[in-house]
Amino acid sequence: MLFEEFFEDKYNETDMLTKVYNRNVIFSYIELLISKNIPFNLCILDVDNFKYVNDGFGHQTGDRALYEISQRIGAILGDRGVLGRYGGDEFIMVGPNVVEYDDVWQLWHEMNECTKKLKSRDLNELSMTVTMGCARFPMDSTNIDGLFELADKALYRGKMKGRNCFIIYLKEKHANINLKTERDKVVSSTYIYSLIYTKLTKDELRTGISDAINYVGSFFMIDHLCLADENNLYFEYFHPICKLRDFKPLSYDVMQKGLNAFTGIFYKNHIDDNLNEEIANPLKEQNIYSTYWVEIKTHDTSFGFLRADICCNPSGRIWQNLDIDILSNFAHTLALELYYRKLELKDIE
Known about the structure:
By secondary structure, this protein is α+β, with helices and mostly antiparallel strands. It has two domains: 4-174, 2-Layer Sandwich (Alpha-Beta Plaits); 182-347, Beta-Lactamase, CATH 3.30.450.40. Helix content is 44%, strand content 20%. It contains twelve helices and twelve strands. Helix 3 (50-57) crosses helix 4, helix 8 runs parallel beside helix 12 and helix 9 packs antiparallel against helix 12 (321-341). The N and C termini lie far apart (59 Å).
């Protein structure tokens, strides 16, 4: 840790809840590194879906879990950096003299692998995952405000990608990300529902489906999104960073067995040993790490499935309520259109 003398009188300047350094100390440390022109990487760490912990277990349990998580993260980080609390369920980590992409990747990859194993005693051993966004001084920005904005963009990319991952800011990939306010997020979700409905009810259904698939796949950063029946995949969307292109249909028996009897959907954050082999093996054969599908069905008539795959992130994807709701709404709207137009998927593409 650089500037040990800087921290000598900071032991009392800790966050009251988590006992890690408070926001003021971390900001002062960052400003000191910048003033000395010492390269470093800045990482914003966000505990995934922590709102549901507070809502489901209560704020006191949530506070104890935050303390436990911060102590574990601090122990993993050790003397390779400095940890502080940004606010709420967000933390800041600063790694001095670690700025080469491969070195930064190795540091936060190790952190990400360790945090996947975090479990909280107060949450009945529930796993607690994190998402991290990183920016570097001076190559990404030479001032503190710019660094936080770029790290926040990387963090936002990680959340939209499915959480439980780390993203290092790269200008060519992330410069055009527009950060949304909380109000924007509410408005945008309503807008997405409306947009999908408008596209899928066009007179020219083929164009509407194609537009809707491309929009949803891009918005949620899904590697592979398509419509599927037993024999074919239709309207396939591939994310620009997805290197795989050769996906195969899954049998109806496999997809039907995965469906929840009540919701009519199936999703898995990570394809692991807890999943029935009959379902897991065909997915693993296609190098799929996480998946979601919902039956396109109405009036007891099934037209196939809407299927979303994650294949570029070995950590999988934590499917969010918004993801699931919008994809399910997509499938239901499409089912009604196909039913009343007396069409099958094979009739359209």
